[in-house]
Every structure is written in C-alpha cells, then in structure tokens.
C-alpha cells in the first residue's frame, strides 16, 4: 500500500494543458514561499513601528507602507539574483504575495507605536 | 544566520532608542509650549539606519531560496533512502552467516 510520500523531490503539475506542462519541485517552492512570507511580515512590522515613531497619520501612513513593500520586493528580487524564474513560478508571487496580510500587521504596529510615542 | 540575527537585533534596538528619544523630545516641546510637527533630525537618521539593518536581516535570516527546477545542478541527488515508505527492515540479511565471536587465535 503506497502511502502519501513526502520525499525530497516530489513533483506536481501546475497547468491544465496536457502537453508542455512545467514540472516543479513542490517542497522547494514551499520553502521559497515561506521565506518570502517571513520577510514580508517582518518588514511590515518594522515599517509600522517606523511610521508610528515618525508620526504619520492618515494617507501618509499607507503611502509609507507601499514604499516599504516596494523596497522589500526589490530586496527579494535581488536575493533571487534577478533570475526570479529559477525560484518561483510567476512574478506575482514574489511581488504581491503577502501584501494584504502585511497590511494588517502594519496598521496594528503603526497604531501601537503612535500611541506609545505620541499620546502616552 | 547568526550574523543576520545580530544585525536584526541591532536594528530593533536602534528603533527603540529612536522611539525613546522622540518621547523625550515631545516632553521637551510640551515644556516649551510648542507643537510637534517634525521629528528631530538625529531621530530620522537613526530610524533610517535601523531600517537598513532590519531590511538586511529580513533578507538573510529566513533562509535561502532553493531552485525549483528538478533538473538544476543542486537538485541532482534524490535522497530516496530517507523515505519511510521504502525502508525494509525484514529482509534476508538474517540468513547470512555472521558469527558473533571472531577472535584472533
């Protein structure tokens, strides 16, 4: 009885077309997604603390978040040594993944830092 | 990863120090009856330095990118023996004539 093996180079297909299907190593793809997620979350928190210390209110804070996310994306692309197709399967993953979840963390730490520095 | 972690800790420490000096600056402005409009210049510089440290820590601490193509150079070796589904513990080696005491006479 063959179990659901989780060996180091298990492969999965990613398209519905029957010919010319790209095959990727799923475990390495998961590892890359995890790295991107951790990096983005940490940078969202740090960006929130900086926005709170600098005293941004309203729209300026979201502009700052967008700037921090852009810098993080550029940093991740530089970490992939500019040949992104070797590590992720589409550009959206390295640019847009974790954007909304990072926004929640950013706003949380932004209000937290702003309250501590400017109000209390 | 150790160096990246230390750089990240230093970045966070710079951020905390900048927050503390901004709190003190606001207290000073309250004493002098002025409004807080712009943080002082050294706080901005310290925040920028802390941000650079944290960016470099965020890019190095979580780990490296691994190549996802199965035919790239570092994916060549398939470590199949580490898969529990293919390990056999009940095989014919118990029939091999290995005597336990093989002393030199």
Automatic annotation (TrEMBL), chain A:
Gene Ontology BP annotations: autophagosome assembly; protein folding in endoplasmic reticulum
Major localisation: endoplasmic reticulum
Keyword Membrane: yes
Domain of life: Eukaryota
Location of this chain's protein in the cell: Endoplasmic reticulum membrane
Coiled coil: none
Position of the signal peptide: none
Annotated spans, Disordered: 1-21
Transmembrane segments: 35-56, 62-82, 94-114
GO cellular component, one term: EMC complex
One of the Pfam families matching this protein, by short name: EMC6
This protein's UniProt keywords: Endoplasmic reticulum, Membrane, Transmembrane, Transmembrane helix
Membrane association type: Multi-pass membrane protein
Homology family: Belongs to the EMC6 family.
Name by which UniProt lists this protein: ER membrane protein complex subunit 6
Species: Hibiscus syriacus
Taxonomy of the source species: Eukaryota, Viridiplantae, Streptophyta, Embryophyta, Tracheophyta
Automatic annotation (TrEMBL), chain B:
Transmembrane segments: 45-66
Superkingdom of origin: Eukaryota
GO CC, alphabetical: early endosome; EMC complex; Golgi apparatus; plasma membrane
Pfam family, one: MMgT
Protein location: Endoplasmic reticulum membrane
GO molecular function: inorganic cation transmembrane transporter activity
Bilayer disposition of the protein: Multi-pass membrane protein
Family that this chain belongs to: Belongs to the membrane magnesium transporter (TC 1.A.67) family.
Assembly and binders: Component of the ER membrane protein complex (EMC).
The protein, known as: Membrane magnesium transporter
Source species: Hibiscus syriacus
């Amino acid at each position: 009885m063959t179990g659901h093996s989780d060996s180091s180079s298990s492969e999965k297909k990613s398209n519905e077309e029957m010919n010319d299907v790209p095959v990727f190593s799923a475990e390495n793809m998961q590892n890359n997604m995890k790295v991107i997620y951790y990096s983005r979350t940490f940078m969202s928190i740090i960006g929130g603390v900086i926005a709170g210390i600098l005293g941004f209110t309203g729209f300026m804070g979201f502009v700052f978040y967008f700037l921090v996310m852009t810098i993080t994306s550029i940093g991740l692309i530089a970490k992939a040594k500019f040949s992104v197709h070797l590590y992720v399967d589409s550009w959206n993953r390295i640019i847009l993944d974790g954007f909304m979840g990072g926004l929640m963390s950013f706003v949380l730490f932004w209000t937290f830092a702003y309250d501590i520095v400017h109000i209390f | 990863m150790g160096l990246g972690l230390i750089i990240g800790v230093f970045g966070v420490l710079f951020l905390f120090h900048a927050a503390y000096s901004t709190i003190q600056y606001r207290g000073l402005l309250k004493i002098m009856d002025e409004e807080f409009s712009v943080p002082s210049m050294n706080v901005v510089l310290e925040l920028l330095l802390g941000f650079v440290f944290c960016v470099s820590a965020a890019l190095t601490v979580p780990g490296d990118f691994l190549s996802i193509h199965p035919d790239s150079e570092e994916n060549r070796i398939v470590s199949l023996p580490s898969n529990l589904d293919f390990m056999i513990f009940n095989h014919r080696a118990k029939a091999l004539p290995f005597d336990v005491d093989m002393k030199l006479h």
